[in-house]
Amino acid sequence: MYIDDLTDAVVACAEAKGWHVEAGIIYKEQKSEFEFGKYSPAGRDFSFNATMKCANINSLIEDIDNYYEGFDVDSETYIWLDQSGHGRNGAPYRMRSVLEDMEATEKMIGELLDAIKEMEVPEEY
Q: What domain of life does the UniProt record list for this protein's source (predicted)?
């Protein structure tokens, strides 16, 4: 079935870029749901979800692109800081280091998006 093959191809592509991927197919709705996870350079356990509809790779690309464009580095940095501006829950102590880590995380998402855009997908998809 096409949705199985394409889902497996996306998983393989993401894993080749160092992402851990959980994927599930909802056959009745003809969609695949993905959870992409990867540690940031500073060790943050980062993940996000995306959906591919009707075995259409472009729907997945659009969903990841929307997440990427909406990723707010400043907000993500703020979440990882304590009230005095230092890292918490394993984050680096310096605010600048946390910000740089979130910028690196944003870059990781962009690289995953580019890799999926560049996947060789047979035309029937």
A: Bacteria
